[in-house]
Amino acid sequence: MTDLESLRLLVLVGELGSLGRAARELGIAQPSASKRLATLERGLGLALVDRGRRGSALTPAGVVVTERARVVLDELDRLTESARALRSAQQAELRVAASMTVAEHLAPGWIGELRRTRPELHVGLRVTNSETVGRLVREGAVDLGFVETPGPLDGLSTRKVAVDRLAVVVPPGHRWVRRRPTTRDLAATPLVVRERGSGTRDTLDRALPDACPPALELGSTTAVRGAVVAGVAPAVLSVLAVALDLADGRLVEVPVEGLDLRRVLRAVWPGGRKLVGPAAELLAVAVRRSSMGT
Q: How far apart are alpha carbons 106 and 99 in whole angstroms?
């Protein structure tokens, strides 16, 4: 097979009229250039260069080969430039999907830090439930996902990025503020819950497998929070989502003895694939900020 760098050397010899100058242009020693040119001539079965005291000149066969070589090398340069442009475009775009808790309370800080070092980077964030995040990652619709579901994630690689805690919350006048409920009370009480497929719902269902049917099922944490504030029913929500409501007294956290609602928030990407580029950089930011408690 003809060596492309040997073709470049041949073209330069024709343009510069000197093997030594062509070698310097390519950054190689003249003996190496001479050996490379000889190997090319043997491979093609043609004498390509006449070497003389005043320099080197292409033979008639060398002229023909050089003309063809220029076409090949020009096409290669265009291919390389196209690949570089495509790579730059891919590196300038990062597609992310995140469950609602992560998307509303953690991902904006992670993305903001990444863009301070990569201001040219465009990041698209899709906000959905954990089940849909997993599907989008498996289908290749996004480069990186963040989920809060506690269950196994088939076909995905995962990395812990944060720890979250769910809390039972009620409005200030609720009876549970005065008398703390048991897990039996909680399971027997219709709650305002997220839709199935939500990580928050999955965590609650695992903690209370015998819970009664919900009072209301809603598709966003904000809607659940609003229903609790309005007095519809208690709910179990991430402390990240209700921190301001708890601080301002709109909601009250009710401890339930023996109920552990801590959960791990995870990054996900296609199983068996190494995470590279902006996706790997965003994951590194998320892990670092989590370790710092920010």
A: 10
- Residue 133: its H or E element: helix 130-139
Phi, psi of 108 (to 5 degrees): -55, -40
Question: What residue type is assigned to position 108 of the chain?
Answer: P
Q: Which two tokens stand for residue 252?
A: 């009250």
Mean per-residue pLDDT, 64-68: 89
Q: Return the SS3 of 59.
A: coil
Tokens of 102: 């992560």
Cα dihedral 6, 11, 16, 20, rounded to 10, equals: 10
Characterise 170 by phi-psi region: left (phi > 0), alpha (psi -120 to 50), beta (else): beta
* Position 294 pLDDT exceeds 70: no
The pTM score is 0.67
What gap in Å lies between CA 208 and CA 260, rounded to an integer? 11
What is residue 85's predicted lDDT score, i.e. its pLDDT?
Answer: 60
Which residues fall within 8 angstroms of residue 38, CB to CB, at 6 or more apart?
none
Please say whether the beta carbons of 215 and 192 come within 8 A. yes
Q: Would you place residue 243 in the very low, low, confident or very high pLDDT band (cuts 50, 70, 90)?
A: very high
- Mean pLDDT score across all residues of the chain: 90
